[in-house]
Structures are given as C-alpha cells and as structure tokens.
Write a structure and sequence with these properties.
heterodimer; A: mainly alpha; extended; B: mainly alpha; Arp2/3 complex 21 kDa subunit ARPC3; 9 helices; 2% strand
Chain lengths: 96, 246
Amino acid sequence: MKLWQKNVILLLLVVLIAFVPLFLLRDAEFGGADGMAEELITESDPDYEPWFQPIFEPASGEVESLLFALQAAIGSGVVCFILGRMTAPGRKDHGN
Amino acid sequence: MNKPHIHPSPGAARAARLFWALPVLTLSLTTGAGAMHIAEGYLPQTWAFGWMAACLPFLGVGLRSIARKTAGEPKAKVLLAMCGAFAFVLSALKIPSLATGSCSHPTGVGLGAILFGPAATAVLGLIVLLFQALLLGHGGITTLGANVFSMAIVGPLVSWGVYRLLRRVKASPAVAVFCAAALGDLLTYVTTSLQLGVVYGNTAGYLAIFAATQIPLAIAEGLLTVVVFNVLEKYSKTELQALSVL
C-alpha cells in the first residue's frame, strides 16, 4: 500500500472517531469536559471560590471559536508548509 | 481511492493528497465553549505554586536539550518547529467523545516526545499552554504549572518511554508511535484527574470525566501522529536517524 493510501485511511478513521458520536449520542450536550470538572469541584466544595480570574476572556463563544480556529490554522499552516517542503521533488535526500 | 486524472508534479500531488484532510479537520472541528485543562483559579495557591516549582527543573533541562539537539542542525530546528505546530493544531481541536458525550482535545505532544525526548517537549507544551491561557481564557496562569506538568511533562515522558520500549522489543515504528502518542494523551488526563482528586477528593469522579472522555480522542491522536510520522519516516529518514528515533 502506498504511503498516501495508508494515510488517507488513517485520516478517515480519525474523522469517524470525531463524527460518529454526533450521530450515536443524539441527546448528549457535548460540552467541555473541563466545565463538568468545575461542576464537580463546586459539588465537593460548595464554598470554593476561584481565587484568580482569567486575565483575558474571549467576549463570546463566537470570538472564542475564532481564536481556536486561528490557533489550529496557524499550527496546520506551519505543519503543512514544512511537510510540503520535505516531500517536494528535487530534494537531494528524497525518499524512494 | 480514485487515481487522479492529472499529474501536475508527483511530489506536489502526493503532498496535497497526504494533507488535504488536516486543514479540513482543523476548520470543521473547532467549536466554542468549554475546553480542557484545569481552569483558572481552580487550584488552591499552595498546589498552584507547588506544581509550577515542580515544572521548573524539567523546563531548564528542556531548554538545554533543545540547544544541544538543534546546534548546527537547521533540519532538526525545522522538525522541532513542526512538532510545536503539531501540538498547536491538536490542542485546538475539541472533539466530541463517544465515551461521555462531552468534548475534549488531544495534546499533540507525543510527536515531539518521540522525536526530541520529553525534556525538549516540555518547552513546546509550555508555549502551547501559555498561548491558550493568555489569549483563549483556556486553562490559566495560576494553573499553568499543573497543566504543564500533566500535558508537557507526564504525557511526553509516557510517550517517549512507550516508544523506546516498544522499539526495543522490535515493534514496528508505526505501532510504537501509535501506542506512544495515544498513551501519552490518555495519561495526561489521568494526571489532570489525580491533580484535582488530591485537592478535592473524588478522584474517580474526575477520572470518569477527563480520562473516560479522552479514550477515543487518544486513539485519534495516535492515528494522527502516525500519519505525520509515516511521512517523516519516508522523507526525513536521515534526520530521524540522527535523532536516533529510527
């Protein structure tokens, strides 16, 4: 099997892992696991007050998702740029 | 899989085929609200500062290790940058989990740990966590020490150890990479659960939230790490051998 075929199969598996829950668990809220943990903390220690507030908090869910998308875009930009150069033809130590 | 009809240049076409799914994944899976890591202010001061102190020696060794491994090796520097960027992408992807019906994200530090070792990866993880704490209100400055300890120290240590162990018993690189990245991811969140449990009790409760949610995501992280490693193994063999990964 060629490298790209192997990798496409692996990536499809990842897509499956990510999207199957949306179809199988129709009633789930898919909230953040950290939010659930905060609730659990409040449950075991109702008086607990966080002693420090985030210095900066995104104004809304939309802004937050923008920032997360930006983080992913920057990261994948760098990863793909480097992999692209690495696999470009004409490199002396090109794989065979 | 359809063979493409046009062959522009074999390298470019190959690269395009290999990576088309990464940005697609990136853009479609990032959702707002909720997240991971221990939230700002949710660890008492003693623990918050204690974890920070515990991280310092690892970060010190990490900076030295990076300087040593990249000195006069521009290609190693590029690979290190890629490992950092990979962690950046993966920790931005909040993925729904079949196990608990909530969302969490992978860590992406397994790749760096396999290539550059746990100490160097501690520094990469710190950069990612600092970015998220300062700009995304995700995790926090006061909980940075605890989060660095779980994601940038314990996770990479596990990944590195598992990879070296499996390679020693002659497992194939892909199998070793998959297990290393997946277990590093999972153990990161086991650590998070223990860190909360030791303060608030009810460790099982936190394990049920963090570790259980993480199981499918750990598998996804393992697979994604193998995808990138497959490419490196073919096109960057010399560098991987220089880093004694292969």
